[in-house]
Structure to design on (551 residues):
């Protein structure tokens, strides 16, 4: 890093400041002393004054729902076969075949595909079982198209014991499904069982380095200073907390323990016994993550109107389970976050919270993905009555072109209706939900901002333009609204006196950026608690300013 931009506390940062504080939305300078903000006025600068010129200065981005371990670790051990790197099934098979040489005895060959892969490939289908077997019949192959659907070859099917999987009442994220063709033969496509596949675990000593580098390259480099992490494995979760405790994690983590993937219902409150450590303001266990239904791609999201095939998806939790876990979390001071894609699933959760006496009491429950697809506007009434917080994902606007593939005619309205939700008073956050299946830019909040503002889908067509939000509203989703969703707005999410000095400097002035160029905006500097944790290569240096510059 260039020495001239490494400040000594206290210091002041001069630029076009957007505070995300509605009482004083703009400022000319941010004062920083140690880990905290001393003020945003330019009348009394403290320490050295560093001038960002006309570049926009913002609070650090807050990604309330991410899968850091998946993005950092599993992605590093898979073969990237996403569109547009691969455009056809032939491209996929060629890339998999080339990767065979690097597969060691006993390992699986894992392909990292996109969400809606069978629509994004030019062939408009997954590779067939026969095609994957042509790549190898001795090496188990699994193509992971998001967190819900995988495609297996015969060797992987054999090792996975599909008879056992097909008999499961539920997988880890919804009802387990093993797909068959019109003749009853298994196709190799399975859903909601990825975590049950017998893939050899990553050696625990590899987690720390991969997580440290993954957080820096996939989150901090894009200005994310706080991550709501949905945990994956106990070793990965333990390693992440220990990297944070050692001062080597470049972003703050608020962890949500996945039940039943990381912990069971019975042992989740004993998480401290596994070696996971909390470090104030660097790594904290914020809550517990449950799945009340599955994914739309697996037709497991529980909906009120049927899918084109007549099914309604599956509910994965009883009301008693929801009430029990909310009660346990209330006792522990933790927040419950519940994956609930479908409107039937969302209303089921709301009914359980009301019946359990939790509406308006304790830490509000988050409904993950509520707000992505709203087909019945009575559903938000249920949210309000139950006192829940909807948590949608703006980057998925980019894949909403394919909604008709699983929703049919019902997809003609209610896709990512952010304008209406904001107008009705919902302080919705933004997040990446990055997983195996995400697009390369998913962890970049400016990509999410662009999606919320421009409403452009994967194939370049607009998606319900009347639901577009302003740039400032989209930025609020990734800053103060995100902090409110996790209950940390008193310390993060805006540039205000006394809050943590999580501050980022963009590479330009946002007021001069056309909407269609928002996704190209980069982050030059990232300060976490007043410490410079990332500087973009080629970024224009921050200049030492004279006091007369402020007059």
């Amino acid at each position: 890093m260039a020495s001239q931009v490494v400040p000594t506390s206290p210091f002041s940062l001069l630029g076009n400041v957007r505070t995300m504080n509605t009482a004083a939305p703009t400022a000319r300078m941010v004062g920083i002393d140690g880990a905290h903000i001393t003020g945003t006025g330019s009348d009394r600068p403290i320490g050295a004054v560093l001038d960002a010129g006309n570049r926009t200065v913002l609070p650090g981005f807050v990604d309330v729902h991410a899968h850091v371990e998946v993005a950092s670790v599993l992605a590093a051990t898979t073969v990237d076969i996403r569109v547009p790197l691969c455009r056809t099934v032939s491209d996929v098979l060629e890339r998999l075949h080339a990767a065979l040489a690097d597969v060691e005895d006993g390992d699986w060959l894992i392909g990292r595909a996109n969400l809606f892969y069978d629509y994004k490939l030019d062939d408009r289908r997954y590779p067939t079982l026969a095609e994957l077997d042509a790549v190898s019949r001795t090496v188990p192959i699994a193509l992971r198209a998001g967190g819900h659907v995988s495609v297996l070859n015969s060797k992987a099917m054999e090792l996975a014991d599909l008879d056992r999987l097909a008999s499961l009442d539920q997988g880890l994220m919804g009802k387990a499904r093993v797909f068959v063709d019109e003749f009853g033969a298994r196709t190799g496509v399975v859903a909601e069982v990825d975590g049950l596949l017998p893939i050899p675990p990553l050696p625990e000593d590899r987690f720390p380095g991969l997580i440290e580098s993954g957080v820096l390259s996939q989150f901090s480099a894009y200005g994310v200073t706080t991550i709501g992490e949905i945990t994956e494995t106990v070793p990965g979760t333990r390693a992440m907390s220990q990297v944070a405790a050692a001062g080597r994690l470049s972003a703050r983590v608020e962890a949500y323990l996945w039940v039943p993937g990381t912990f069971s219902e019975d042992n989740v409150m004993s998480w401290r016994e596994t070696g996971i450590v909390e470090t104030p303001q660097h790594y904290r266990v914020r809550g517990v993550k449950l799945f009340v239904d599955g994914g739309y791609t697996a037709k497991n999201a529980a909906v009120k109107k049927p899918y084109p095939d007549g099914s309604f998806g599956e509910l994965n939790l009883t009301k008693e389970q929801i009430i029990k876990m909310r009660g346990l979390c209330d006792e522990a001071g933790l927040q419950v976050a519940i994956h609930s894609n479908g409107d039937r699933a969302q209303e089921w959760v709301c009914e359980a919270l009301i019946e359990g006496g939790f509406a308006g009491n304790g830490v509000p429950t988050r409904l993950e993905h509520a707000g992505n697809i709203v087909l019945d506007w009575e559903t938000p009434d249920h949210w309000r009555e139950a006192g829940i917080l909807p948590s949608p994902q703006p980057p998925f606007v980019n894949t909403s072109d394919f909604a008709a593939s699983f929703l049919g005619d019902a997809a003609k309205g209610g896709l990512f209706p952010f304008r209406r939700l904001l107008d009705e008073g919902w302080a919705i956050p933004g997040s990446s939900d990055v997983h195996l299946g995400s697009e390369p830019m998913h962890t970049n909040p400016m990509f999410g901002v662009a999606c919320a503002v421009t409403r452009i889908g994967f194939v370049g067509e607009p998606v319900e333009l009347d639901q577009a939000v302003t740039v400032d509203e989209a930025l609020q989703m990734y800053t103060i609204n995100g902090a409110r969703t996790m209950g940390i707005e008193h310390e993060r999410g805006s540039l205000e006196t006394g809050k943590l000095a999580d501050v980022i400097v963009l590479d330009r002035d946002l007021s001069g950026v056309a909407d269609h160029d928002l996704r190209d905006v980069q982050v030059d500097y990232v300060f976490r608690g007043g410490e410079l944790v990332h500087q973009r290569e080629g970024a224009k240096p921050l200049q030492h300013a004279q006091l007369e510059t402020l007059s």
Observations:
- The first strand starts at residue 11 and ends at 18.
